[in-house]
Amino acid sequence: MSSRVIPKCPPNVESVPFVDENGDTIDIHIVGDGRRETTYFKAVDIAMLVGASRAQVITDALDVNNCVRIGKAINDPVYIKFAGLIQYIVSSRKARGTQYGIWIRKILFAFTINDHHTIVELAQPSLATVSPDLTISYPTGIYLLDVGTVGSLRNKLTEPTDAADDDVVLKFGMSNTNLFRRMQEHDFPNASRLVMCCMPPELAGKAEKEIHMYMNNMHIVKPFAYEKQSELVSVPRNKLDLITNSVRKIGVERGGENAKVNTTHEIEKINLHLNFSKEKLEKAEVDLQTIAKQLDAQLYDKDRQLSTLTTRIAEKERQLIEKD
């Protein structure tokens, strides 16, 4: 197939090699500037990664815009964009069935739903090659756990419940320090994670409040008073997916916001209100000055009228005295 030509090879991009579950490293030659649209992956290495017999199998299946030849000679290597790699993975049955195809679909899905716990699990082999002195901050965010059934936990209830033994007990909450540690602090050894969404602490607090309001407004959700634990509820098993998806939606929507942008937006709104109030105050001052001037003018007229009337009265009194 024909492809766009780049006469001179861009600089290499430093990257972490893909490591499969067997520990085998697949090194792909990558060139470009590190941006999605201008970073290129060597087609022959991609072919090895996805189990294609040769690079042409991949390039023939791609749009011409997703392939570039680096060099002017016909035998110079062909590179593909990241969009081309994804296009091949999702369109080729063989590529989808390879170990890498399965892995990339799983991790793309995890990124799509903000499931950071799964992202870390899937990326662990590659993350193992990251320099140990790289500082990684602990994630903060919200979570939803399945901690068991009503029947299995009923013996430690501090208040009775009319929930069925088969109903599922859920624990929800947030962490503004370390989300992974927070989920492990609860005394539920058989708990399973249903939702985990990472986000800045200020957004996590808002998300938790929304989840709390959602749980309170759902008639199928019942409070579950278990020992000293808080934020425990029970739900019918056939409604578990509904509750889980709703909590995940809240987390994804909040997690997708930009806390700094939100703060800036709030400051801008406050400034707008202040400016509007200042304009109203200035207008009120002008109106008061106008009214004061009008009152002064009216008072001056009244004073003149009173003075004229006083003069007339005095004149009348003088005339009466003269007649007498």
Description:
The chain contains eleven helices and twelve strands. The protein has 324 residues and is of the alpha+beta class. It has three domains: 124 residues, no CATH class; 117 residues, no CATH class; 54 residues. The strands form three sheets. A five-stranded mixed beta sheet has the order 1-6-7-5-4. Strands 10-8-9-12-11 form a five-stranded antiparallel beta sheet. A hairpin with a 6-residue loop joins β4 and β5. It is elongated.
What are the key terms here?
Bro-N domain-containing protein, 324 residues, alpha+beta, five-stranded antiparallel beta sheet, 11 helices, coiled coil, 3 domains
* Widest sheet: strand ordering: 1-6-7-5-4
Element-by-element helix/strand order: EEEEEHHEEHHHHEHEHEHEEHH
Strand content: 15-25%
Shape: elongated
Q: Name the structural class.
A: alpha+beta
Count the helices. How many? Answer: 11
User: What is the count of distinct domains?
Assistant: 3
Distance between the termini: 132 Å
Low-confidence stretches: 126-137
- Helical content band: 40-55%
Q: Over all CA atoms, what is the radius of gyration? A: 37 Å
Q: Profile the largest sheet.
A: 5 strands, mixed
Mean pLDDT: 76
Question: What is the count of β-strands?
Answer: 12
